[in-house]
Amino acid sequence: MDEYFIGVDPSLTGFAVVTLNQLGAVVRQDSWETSPGQFTCFSARINYLRESFCRLLDSFTAGVHVAIEGYSFGSRNGRELAGGLGELIRWTLWQRKIGFLEVPPTTLKSFACGVGGAKKEVVLREVFRRWGYVARDNNLADAYALARLLWERTFPEFQTAHSCAVLAKLAAQPGAKMRKPPEAPSREPSGATGSSACPLDSHPRS
Fold this sequence. Notes:
Blueprint: E1 3-9, E2 15-20, E3 26-32, H1 42-58, E4 63-69, H2 79-95, E5 100-103, H3 105-113, H4 120-131, H5 138-154, H6 161-172
Parallel strand pairs: 1-4, 4-5
Antiparallel strand pairs: 1-2, 2-3
């Protein structure tokens, strides 16, 4: 059975996903750019990104493995909004019973560059130097590095001394194992109701 390794950088302004096959080759790269003015409300914005991601997942009939960039707790701007999107994407994976590996930003940068505090431009350059992947922006570079990390984690015979050391440190971190979603409850809680002032249409304004 074919398997696919998906790296997800859940950015509000440039949500990026790169997918590798079993040979480590890129089979598709996707990104969706959004801005607040395109949508009626924040909920519509993140739902548009979720629906786009779901359509990507629906395109695969074989097994998928996902690595997602962890939360940047040190960020000063937009941390709460990014957290809302990040949790929605994690919930989507849970709902679909797709396990995922969460990779802290510093670990991702260390894997791609050898330095946990590397700037985005350095990651972009090093992804090309190490693996020959030409990313058109920083988000796709991050997504590729995530997919590559997951692929090398699955096929250790392709690990370098550097990537082996990074993956060993990642495995030693609490909660670093592939997160398998639990079984969903058999029924919804009784009396669950809700309303929203946000229109259901989550497509960008023309």
